[in-house]
Amino acid sequence: MSGHAGAASSLRFGQVVIGPPGSGKTTYCRAMQEFLTQLGRKVVVVNMDPANEGPPYPCAVDIAELVALDDVMEGMKLGPNGGLLYSMEYVEANLDWLENKLKEHGDCYFLFDCPGQVELYTHQTSVKNIFSQLAKWNFRLAAVHLVDSHFCADPAKFISVLCTSLSTMLHVELPHVNILSKMDLIEQYGKLAFNLDFYTEVMDLTYLLDHLAADPFFKKFHRLNEKLAEVIQDYSLVSFVPLSVKDKESMIQVLRAVDNANGYCFGDLEERNLQAMMSAAVGADFQFDSTLGVQERYVETRGKTVEEEMMDL
Ligand SMILES: Nc1nc2c(ncn2[C@@H]2O[C@H](COP(=O)(O)OP(=O)(O)OP(=O)(O)O)[C@@H](O)[C@H]2O)c(=O)[nH]1
């Protein structure tokens, strides 16, 4: 397979990294930048979060130089949420600044570290308009949407995560990869009721609803949850790739999914670097990992199968 650069030099590939506050976006950008650099990809990270002061990665473009959240809150007498909405509208109104900054980095692979406020991706249009302008400047981007994996351990929260993910996918209108982040902490707040692939593949949600109905508190919300599950399943768009940033095999899974989504082609050199890196890490005959492998590493005791769960009901 040949590299992408020669074939389409004016195209610039990359990822917009989105997700709720604390889901791991900045950590992901740093880890992905290091990982891709090892593979030989020339990567730059763009901080798109006006509240992100001094990000922990070498930052090629920093939106806080254009608009800083603290200044907006003070000057406009706004709280943090209103301030962030205003800041992104300000960026949208000053896109020539961003265009000039990005031009300085020509033919690189771009990681955009975006703010975490959920309504930016489900309601407000500024961020979506910024993304569509990036496409007009020949960026081929995938949205990488991180959500904390420990929500899987709580069926009600998982349904809410599914709703947010679906809503974000429909609103942002980019090729989309949903990630369950912090897999190493997935069972930090409770055990999973089902195998991991039930959550990553978003299998038949009626099992989740039945599991939820066993909790007296949620009994009265059964019909609401049923309708929400119906919407999610009717669209049939949401699925997840599991990730722990310290786990190279799960980083490869994510990278494969993202490259598929935005159309980036692995070059030969990159493929060789990947083989060398992974054979040093896990032995020469490594294979790209599956969800089952991730489950074995991070889910302490295997959850019940759907069939076992139904036997209990
Ligand atoms: N154990 C573990 N911790 C992680 C992982 N990814 C992120 N974290 C931790 O999660 C916390 C939040 O990560 P950030 O990268 O700051 O999250 P963010 O989404 O950028 O947060 P905001 O900028 O507030 O929106 C930090 O303490 C990270 O160290 C992971 O894969 N495993």
UniProtKB/TrEMBL annotation:
User: Which is a Gene Ontology cellular component entry for this protein?
Assistant: cytoplasm
| Claim: Iron is one of the keywords in the record | no
> What CDD domains does the database record attribute to this sequence?
GPN2 (cd17871)
**Highest taxon listed in the record's lineage:** Eukaryota
Which key words are in the record? GTP-binding, Hydrolase, Nucleotide-binding
Which GO molecular function terms does the record list?
A: GTP binding; GTPase activity
Quote the Gene3D superfamilies the UniProt record gives. P-loop containing nucleotide triphosphate hydrolases
* Keyword Nucleotide-binding assigned: yes
* Cited function: Small GTPase required for proper localization of RNA polymerase II and III (RNAPII and RNAPIII). May act at an RNAP assembly step prior to nuclear import.
> Could you describe the subunit structure of this protein?
Heterodimers with GPN1 or GPN3. Binds to RNA polymerase II (RNAPII).
State the family it belongs to: Belongs to the GPN-loop GTPase family.
The entry's protein name is GPN-loop GTPase 2
* Upper taxonomic lineage: Eukaryota, Metazoa, Chordata, Craniata, Vertebrata
